[in-house]
Amino acid sequence: MVNEFINKIREENKKIIVAGDGGVGRTTLLIRFTKNYFSSDTKMTLGIQFFTQSIDIKKKNINFVFWDFAGQERWRFFQSDFCKGADGAILAFDLTRPPSLLNIGAWVKILRSWNRDLPIILIGMKADLNNIIPDAYIPSLENYQFIDIIKVSCKTGENVQKTFQSLFSHILNIPSEKKLNIKYIDERTKKIERMLQVSNRIKLDMMRNALNMEKKAFDEKIFEWAEEFGFIIDEDILIVDKDTVSDYINKLDIMFETWEKSKTEKLS
Predict the structure, then answer these.
(1) Which pTM value belongs to this model?
(2) Domain ranges of the chain
């Protein structure tokens, strides 16, 4: 019963890693795709940030969660651990900055830490600018078994949809020419983003403390809540059905208030 529920969640939720050196435009790409506008003013990613998007395919709604990896080298030490369970990846470089190609091999190694056959698309960013890298310097499909290599402009929108269309089609095993019905982000999905931006494992530990429950009893309670509120824990990731996320957030807030109150009483 539990395994069937987890398999259903995994079928309806896909994890995509978006990686590349700092400043190549990963976050700009995700904003362009998930929110349908160009942002020229994005802040440096610290650690990991998350974006979500839903598509309708074969009368089924599939949620994609994009893990935007920070590009600076100081974050590399933990990134391979977060590639576990990934369904695909987008690896970006800057077409106007040849040095951004130097770490392609290192990024591929990180992305395929858990799955040596992980599908990866290589994309060259800022295709609308002049003085871009000649094709001869860009790795070929065969170099790293990329499923596609695409030049993209987030400013003009050139090939943004094509990039995600290509990756989704490969992951879902559908013809690449079949147009996917993409639903742009809504308020409920934004709530999921905010939930994913904090440590879910810490939240769950705090909830267990608030309820003063043994771990085994708490784990059993979690699966009861999964049926009631439509969420499940896959490894360390909390996956939530966006139609019930408001109810879940309210429940979680009550647990935090209980925990905070108990801590305050102990200190007084």
Answers:
(1) 0.65
(2) 12-183, 187-267
Name residues whose C-beta falls within 8 Å of residue 79's C-beta, 6 or more positions apart in sequence. 19, 69, 110
Residue 82, pLDDT above cutoff 70: yes
CA–CA dist 107, 94 (Å, integer): 14
Q: Is 25 exposed, middle or buried (0-12, 13-18, 19+ CB in 10 A)?
A: buried
- The 10s digit of each residue's pLDDT in 139-172 is 888 889 999 999 999 989 899 989 998 998 888 8
User: Would you tell me which CATH number, out of the four given (3.60.20.10, 3.30.43.10, 3.40.50.300, 3.40.50.10420), belongs to the domain 12-183?
Assistant: 3.40.50.300
Tell me the C-alpha to C-alpha distance, in Å, between residue 105 and each of 67, 109, 143, 262. Answer: 19, 6, 9, 50
Q: Which residue has the higher pLDDT, 137 or 245?
A: 137
DSSP secondary structure code for residue 256 in this structure: H
Tell me phi and psi for residue 106, to 5 degrees: -65, -40
Q: Distance between CA 198 and CA 190 in Å, rounded? A: 13
